[in-house]
Amino acid sequence: MSQPVVTRFAPSPTGYLHIGGARTALFNWLYARGRGGTFLLRIEDTDRTRSTPEATQAILDGLAWLGLDHDGEAISQFARADRHAEVARQLLAEGKAYKCFATQDEIQAYRDAARAEGRSTLYQSPWRDADPSTHPDAPYVIRIKAPRDGSTVIRDEVQGDVTIRNDQLDDMVLLRSDGTPVYMLAVAVDDHDMGVTHVIRGDDHLNNAARQMMIYEAMGWPLPVYAHIPLIHGPDGKKLSKRHGALGVEEYRAMGYPAAGMRNYLARLGWSHGDDEFFTDEQAKEWFDLGGIGKSPARFDFKKLENLCGQHIAASDDAALLHEWQDFLAATGQRPLGDDKTPLVLAALPHLKERAKTFPELIDKAAFVLNDRPIVPDEKSAGNLDSVSRGILKELTSHLQNVRWERDEVEAVAMQFAENHDMKFGKLAGPLRAALAGRSATPSVFDMFMVLGQEESLARLTDAASGAG
């Protein structure tokens, strides 16, 4: 029976959740969830000067918005420092690590001399094989005994086999002279103790794998499966940075992109399943595999993101979309939809969601239900309410007073009215849009009539005909 899959996302809480980190979390989440496995979260908070509770919360909030739920409590790497030190001391006791008493000045002098002589500047400590009886009573670090000959092969599911000559690896420090563990040790110990079977992370960590493997092998632990994914680049092919636009997940949330669209887009950013562009979470979990990840950096494309987000809004269940709309308002500090507006918005959603790519666009299209009488037309639509148009609206209102308020009936009356006045309905639509929504770009006039109902629709037409608003 195969071992259950355990993946992890391990961000450093030194700022917001970066879009690249969000994609790494998503890949780990999809891989675990699609195989009935476990997805863990570890906060790598060992840099005490830069790690903040606010940044940790921003990461948790970003993951929650994206819907990437983790199993169990988030683990603090800093809180496990004693365990990391214990492993370093175990390796020391087993002769697989050693005490190094070299000072920073001595190490620098060694490197300067090596550089001058054209040798490798990789530090080789004279304490590696020193007799313990010669150890001074002085501060020391604990270094691992790196292999000196041969090579280390990282078997990577994305990059293929990556070979590093062992003479390129130094005797890495495990424990500093103040007794604190280094990051490389902490990561390897945590991954082992958490039972991580698959390490899926950015390819900027590829070289770290060789160093972390030394610890695994020295401890006799089974290696995880490695998958180092290419970084995300901007549209210009350069590493994604602030000049390309938003970098933090919370910025995309504030811009009103739906979480499902964001998940879909990030999944496609560097991974593919045939030619499929639009897919559901269930499909992504079923399809996602490491073999579908490309070796080249993916380019972030706002147009593709918007296109996918539009498709997800259109495909959303109305009640779920309304719930996410309310969440968007709360996240951006806007007033929530009141009980008087919620049923109207829900009724309008089927007519709004077809062409909206973000929540601000959806809200803009919903102006006709969100605004109260008297409707004040914007500058563009006000031009459709001249005295002639007002007279026409007044006459049409009287024709709509006694009609059965069903779309076919209302449409038939309006079309007949236009024909009787020897005009195309399009000529009538402009004043109707201005009267009902105060805008020139709106859902269909008849959709608005049906959502607003007879009483409200006729009241708005009467207001516009009389010049109110």
Describe this structure in words.
The N and C termini lie far apart (72 Å). The protein is built from 19 helices and twelve strands. It has helices at residues 19-33, 53-66, 81-93, 104-116, 183-193, 206-219, 249-254, 259-268, 281-287, 302-315, 318-331, 342-352, 359-365, 367-370, 379-382, 387-400, 407-420, 425-437, 445-466, and strands at residues 6-9, 38-43, 75-76, 97-100, 141-144, 151-156, 160-165, 173-175, 198-202, 225-229, 232-233, 298-299. The protein has four domains: 6-76 and 232-305, HUPs (Rossmann fold); 79-229, Rossmann fold; 316-365; 379-466, Arc Repressor Mutant, subunit A (Orthogonal Bundle). Helix 12 crosses helix 19 (445-466). The model has no long low-confidence stretch (mean pLDDT 95). With 469 residues, the chain is mainly alpha-helical. The strands form five sheets. The protein has a three-stranded parallel beta sheet with strand order 1-2-3, with helices on one face. Helices cover 47% and strands 10% of the residues.
**What's the CATH superfamily of the largest domain, by name?**
HUPs
Annotated CATH architecture of the largest domain: 3-Layer(aba) Sandwich
Main sheet summary: 3 strands, parallel
SS content category: mainly alpha
Shape: elongated
Major sheet: arrangement of strands: 1-2-3
The average pLDDT score comes to 95
Low-confidence stretches are none
Helicity level, as a percent range? 40-55%
Q: How many runs of DSSP E, i.e. beta strands? A: 12
Distance between the termini: 72 Å
Strand content: 5-15%
CATH class of the largest domain: Alpha Beta
